[in-house]
UniProtKB/TrEMBL annotation:
<keyword id="KW-0560">Oxidoreductase</keyword>
<dbReference type="InterPro" id="IPR020904">
    <property type="entry name" value="Sc_DH/Rdtase_CS"/>
</dbReference>
<dbReference type="InterPro" id="IPR002347">
    <property type="entry name" value="SDR_fam"/>
</dbReference>
<comment type="similarity">
    <text>Belongs to the short-chain dehydrogenases/reductases (SDR) family.</text>
</comment>
<dbReference type="InterPro" id="IPR036291">
    <property type="entry name" value="NAD(P)-bd_dom_sf"/>
</dbReference>
<feature type="domain" description="Ketoreductase">
    <location>
        <begin position="6"/>
        <end position="184"/>
    </location>
</feature>
<dbReference type="Pfam" id="PF13561">
    <property type="entry name" value="adh_short_C2"/>
</dbReference>
<dbReference type="InterPro" id="IPR057326">
    <property type="entry name" value="KR_dom"/>
</dbReference>
<dbReference type="GO" id="GO:0016491">
    <property type="term" value="F:oxidoreductase activity"/>
</dbReference>
<protein>
    <submittedName>
        <fullName>Short-chain dehydrogenase</fullName>
    </submittedName>
</protein>
Length: 245
């Protein structure tokens, strides 16, 4: 097991990619704090981790709410020091620039940029003080492509990737590894409304199919584990080969 004696906080762990990361961390021996808004789904994820022999607890907060980040920080700190923070919670509204209203802009930037920023501001100095820690930001290949309908979402993830590098510079010297993962299209409850469209969209990629959350979680286990000690400020692209062609 790669994460024994680690305590990991995973945002958006009640669904999709975050849930798969939480479950994989649990299998690797981490104590997992399962963060989300939906207490029932958080309890279900926690029960699954415990049933598989791991340990976990729910931490409930709305990261889009004005006090949501402070609520989550306080709830997580009550469990003890955090060794691994995964900034995964995110939304991906898709619309043309002229069709995007200010409420959507604010909601996207609040969850995709503001929440990772202030969660890192809260936990990275504590990790630095203990001389070790891992921060993993879940970006997207949308950060690397100019795509109609994804201007706002792509910009939010491009900001997160720049923050990944800035935080590597800021906290790396104190023993905190900050990295990102850029998934390609992945089947999750969030992308379920795309239905067969996701298969069509990915059919021309080298993998020829969408990813599954467990395939993204594997990269997170690597970045949280001992094998990634020399990896700082990197983005691992896990996209079925889309960015290669
Ligand atoms: N799926 C893809 O194709 C894909 C591709 C590239 C990147 N990504 C990125 O991967 C991450 C996860 O995507 P996903 O597809 O797994 O998403 P998902 O299935 O829609 O799950 C989103 C998670 O975020 C949480 N969340 C949403 N709003 C929140 C809020 N205001 N406060 C706290 N938590 C909130 C949800 O929890 P609650 O409902 O319990 O609050 C849920 O656990 C996102 O950052 C996304 O941008 C996804």
């Amino acid at each position: 097991m790669q994460l024994t004696d680690s305590r990991a906080l995973v945002t958006g762990a009640t669904s999709g990619i975050g849930r798969a990361i939480a479950e994989a961390f649990g299998r690797e021996g981490a104590h997992v704090l399962v963060a989300g808004r939906d207490a029932a789904r958080a309890a279900e994820v926690v029960a699954g981790i415990v049933a598989s022999g791991g340990t976990a607890a729910p931490v409930i907060a709305d990261l889009g709410a004005p006090d949501g980040i402070a609520v989550l920080v306080e709830a997580a700190k009550a469990h003890g020091p955090i060794d691994v923070l995964v900034n995964n919670a995110g939304i991906y509204p898709m619309s043309g620039t002229a069709q995007t209203d200010e409420a959507t802009f604010e909601a996207t930037m609040n969850l995709n940029v503001r929440a990772p920023f202030f969660l890192t501001a809260a936990f990275a100095p504590l990790m630095a003080a203990q001389g070790r820690g891992r921060i993993i930001n879940i970006s997207s290949i949308a950060a690397h492509l100019g795509t109609t309908g994804m201007a706002l979402y792509g910009a939010s993830k491009a900001a997160l990737e720049l923050l990944t590098k800035a935080w590597a510079a800021e906290f790396g010297p104190a023993g905190v590894n900050v990295n990102a993962i850029a998934p390609g299209p992945t089947r999750t409850p969030g992308t379920a409304p795309m239905g067969a469209g996701l298969d069509e969209f990915t059919s021309g990629f080298p993998a020829g199919r969408p990813g599954v959350p467990e395939e993204i979680a594997g990269a997170a286990v690597y970045l949280a584990g001992p094998g990634a000690a020399f990896v700082h400020g990197a983005t691992i692209v896990v996209d079925g080969g889309r960015m290669a062609i």
